[in-house]
Amino acid sequence: MKFTPDTEQQDMTGALHDLLTKAGPADVTTDWAHGDGERWRELWRELAAMGVSGLLVAESDGGLGLGPVELAACLEQFGRAGTPGPLVESLAFAPALLQPADSALPSDLAAGVAVASAAVHEHVPLALDADRSDVVLVCDEQVRAVTPHEPVRYQAADPARRLFRVDAGQAPVVQQHDFARAFDLGVLGCAAYLLGLGTRCLELATEHVRQREQFGKPVGEFQAVKHQLADVLLGLQHARPVVRGAALRPGALDVSAAKIVAGEAAHRAARTALQLHGAIGYTSEHELHLWLLRTEALRRSWGTPDWHRRRVARELTDNPDANIGAA
Known about the structure:
It is globular, with a radius of gyration of 19 Å. The chain has helices at residues 7-23, 25-33, 38-50, 68-81, 87-97, 179-211, 223-248, 252-277, 288-299, 305-318, and strands spanning 116-120, 127-128, 135-139, 143-146, 152-154, 163-165, 213-214, 217-218. The protein is mainly alpha-helical. One of its GO terms (molecular function) is flavin adenine dinucleotide binding.
């Protein structure tokens, strides 16, 4: 089954791709990891001007009023660019969770201008970039909106994923829509981002083997290398319709299946890219390491692979006739 974006969706993702490319993905990520958020903030302002930062926000509240299909398409582009920051939280989770009129929230959050992060039960225990977010949603039995003040930072393998422990304390409880749907949209967003990461790893690996020579010819001409890249491509081509199918029907079964296959496809792409690059792929001088670290971290964020497999098993046990990706 093919899920082909329509003309408007293709135009939107094309414009987003051009914007992210112009911004210099590796430079934005490197600056963000080293404590300089100015490039990222400038990019966010441009995204807000395009309306991308308010994808799921209703038009009456200043957003675009679009749906999960456009959300997944855009987050795939963010993943391909390796854009840092709490994108899944700001674009997917927060807009689906919150009541925009709640007085405890920043007035510009509904319009997609403010940046939101989140700590969600055991699945996202540490809030991403809490110190650079306008609000952190701490979700346990209730949802509380926290304005971060010197949160406790934890060391992460990926320096561009800045993780913080946020204490909700006596922060105000905010009204919420359907928490389950908001969480599933967060999972879908993470899956789409992983798909973009895997695509970029494949692109970097392909570029490298075309340029690197061994025994007088490009490494990419060796049959074994072609087979490795073909396996990566097949994995990504298998994952893409699962992710897009989940965007059409973002329920528990579909988004968990999308997270599993996108995570595995991105993981294979990252490992293959590293193997073909050799040790240089580990170094900070090469941009590949940015995508490697992000892939490994996001495979375990918004639910581990094992948790999502158990979830799929429960859904199929309760409804054996369910079809993944069926509209």
